[in-house]
């Protein structure tokens, strides 16, 4: 499931996922209620999109003095 699906899922829906019990499901619900956590996720999504849009990822793989 995507972050969005986890965010909108109910406690019961999360418990139905294999290997997620009531305690983990409750933790997921609480995680997505925190505005700070949502802000971090949005920032990461933005940065990932930016990296791929600028096509800088292949440059990170090239050998440079900074990545020996």
Descriptive overview:
This protein has 68 residues and is mainly α. The protein has one domain. 72% of the residues lie in helices and 0% in strands. It has five helices and no strands. Pfam families: HHH_2. This is DisA/LigA helix-hairpin-helix motif domain-containing protein. Keywords: DNA damage, DNA repair.
Please trace the helix and strand order, writing H or E for each element: HHHHH
Query: How many domains, as an integer?
Result: 1
Return residue spans where pLDDT drops below 50 for at least 5 consecutive residues. none
Structural class label: mainly alpha
Distance between the termini: 36 Å
What radius of gyration results from the CA coordinates? 17 Å
How many alpha or pi helices? 5
Strand content: under 5%
Helix content: over 70%
Q: Characterize the overall form.
A: elongated
Would you tell me the overall average pLDDT? 84
Total E-strand runs: 0
**Largest sheet report:** none
Which secondary structure elements does this structure contain, and how are they paired or packed?
Layout: H1 3-8, H2 11-16, H3 22-33, H4 35-54, H5 57-61
Protein name: DisA/LigA helix-hairpin-helix motif domain-containing protein
Pfam family, one: HHH_2
Organism: marine sediment metagenome
